């Protein structure tokens, strides 16, 4: 998750005002550890002296001040979190992902997923107002057209579970991807349990 700290949460960097009225931008790490970057562009040194720097390391900084180009630096994680503790405390939770699995050729959850589904629903419902994206998948048995239809039915079944728990329909999107995005790559007509799934993305 990218965040801008200062007056608002936005984009992956932390903006603050350093000495003498300038601005400081600090790149925050992604919640899942994936790389991120931000381009800092300034005309503080004048319209004919555009300055631009790329931040691509966690807690790397760029300081912008009147009459001078962007200056790169780095902060310590502990310092950033202490300085902006209220903003970190009030930041929305990072996106979450859950997976439910199905019996071959059906919209029936496996016994393990039947046991897990209430926990998944409960954890998701703690995020009031979150958008929920449900992506249905199949293995490579049956035809592509049939798998498209089955994957969508699986996603809609899970959507109904959320609606029954009071989630607003506008917040839950269900789509089917058939056998296009296999979790485990297989040849055609392979019965692979890990591909028969619905991915639940909460953001």
From TrEMBL:
Residues 89-203 form the OmpA-like domain. It is found in: Cell outer membrane. GO terms for cellular component: cell outer membrane. Keywords: Cell outer membrane, Membrane. It holds the Pfam family OmpA. The lineage of its organism: Bacteria, Pseudomonadati, Pseudomonadota, Betaproteobacteria, Burkholderiales. InterPro entries: Bact_OuterMem_StrucFunc, OMP_bac, OmpA-like, OmpA-like_sf. It comes from the Bacteria. The keyword rRNA-binding does not apply. This is OmpA family protein. The keyword Membrane applies.
């Amino acid at each position: 998750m990218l965040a801008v700290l200062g007056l608002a949460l936005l984009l992956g960097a932390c903006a603050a005002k350093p000495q003498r009225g300038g601005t400081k931008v600090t790149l925050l790490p992604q919640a899942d550890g994936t790389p991120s970057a931000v381009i800092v562009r300034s005309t503080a040194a004048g319209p004919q002296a555009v300055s631009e720097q790329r931040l691509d390391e966690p807690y790397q900084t760029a300081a912008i001040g009147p009459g001078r180009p962007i200056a790169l630096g780095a902060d310590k994680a502990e310092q950033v979190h202490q300085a902006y503790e209220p903003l970190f405390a009030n930041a929305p939770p990072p996106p979450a992902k859950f997976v439910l699995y199905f019996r071959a050729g059906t919209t029936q959850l496996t016994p393990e997923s039947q046991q897990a589904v209430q926990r998944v629903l409960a954890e998701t419902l703690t995020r009031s107002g979150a958008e929920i994206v449900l992506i249905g998948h199949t293995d490579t048995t049956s035809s592509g057209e049939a798998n498209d239809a089955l994957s969508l039915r699986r996603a809609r079944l899970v959507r109904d579970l959320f609606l029954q728990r009071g989630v607003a329909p506008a917040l839950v999107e269900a789509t089917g991807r058939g056998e296009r995005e296999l979790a485990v790559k297989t040849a055609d007509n392979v019965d692979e349990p890990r591909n028969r799934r619905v991915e639940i993305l909460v953001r």
